[in-house]
Amino acid sequence: MPIRASIFLFCLVRITMAQLLAQEEKEKTTALKDLLSRIDLDELMKKDEPPLNFPETLDGFELAFNEHGQLRHIHTGEPFVFNYKEDLHRWNQKRYEALGEIITKYVYELLENDCNLKKEILPVDSTVDEPKSFIYMSEDALTNPEKIMVLIQGSGVVRAGQWARRLIINEDLNSGTQIPFINRAKEENSTPEEHTLYVWDHFISKSLAKNIFIVAHSYGGLSFVNLMIQREAEVKNHVRAVAMTDSVHNVWHQEANKSIRDWLREHCCNWVSSPEPLDTLVDPMLNDCPRVSAGTEKHELTSWKSFHSIFKFFRDALKNHEDESSSSPVTTRSSHRIKNEDL
């Protein structure tokens, strides 16, 4: 009996010690959290950080685009380096963002000077104090009687003329901008959906083009499906084909009706990020339109990698439309009679 009592007492002491240690650890954790709450981490990161004064031009960054459209250091020929200063991630990020703003202005200049596009301010009847946006369009966008192509970028920091800023900085202008699509075709409201609808109503729908082709990347695909829901008859009458690239649309969540889903299956193709070779059919998660591989697993590269496939898709769609138009049967009294007899 005394031995059992000793064992019980020993166990009780060990349990008590463990509880005391746990309580002490909890108090230390609470004290540490209290200390951290008093520290402004942003201010701590600014300690010993150089001033956030960055150049306002590519020359100031000692960078330039070479003949291949690649951003390179003008003296060393090296690509852009994000970690310009070690262990100063916040400063490096701010430097990257400052360069990104310069890149945006540079692309706008290319759209206006090299692609001969003009800026259109939105809304068209905006007042001086009203928030504004803009799009770029060719001089003949509303008068060309044959074709018109509409480019819709994704959401985020990308602006008109861009697919992905990161690609422009780290890869080249061809993969990161819409300029190749613009050049080949010649041989941006409160939400992206409202913006697309506004541009359709005030510009695209007024065009004399009989055949409209659309390239919609990422969220741009969702914006196009919303456009179809709002302007179904107009879209079906004018749009010949839609090339989506890694589109994030969802016809069921967006409540697209059956006729829209059927039209998308016939006139749309979605080039998605995939390890499979380019144009390999990918099993669709949603049975709305064919999904094929863009030949890359990088979301932002899908438009560029599928460039040639997209224009082949457009050519085939136009040919099919022309063939269908030319082969439409002529209705006569005899044809009605035969049809009725067959019925």
Walk me through what this model shows.
The protein has helices spanning 2-37, 41-46, 89-114, 165-170, 173-176, 179-186, 192-202, 219-230, 232-238, 258-267, 302-305, 307-326, 333-342; strands at residues 63-65, 71-73, 118-122, 133-137, 147-152, 211-217, 239-245, 268-272, 291-293. It contains 13 helices and 9 strands. The model is unreliable at 8-13 and 330-343 (pLDDT under 50). The protein is α/β, with parallel strands linked by helices and 343 residues long. Strand 7 (239-245), helix 10 (258-267) and strand 8 form a beta-alpha-beta unit. A 5-stranded parallel β-sheet has the order 5-6-7-8-9, sandwiched between helices. It is globular and about 85 Å long. Helix 7 (192-202) crosses helix 8 and helix 8 packs across helix 9 (232-238).
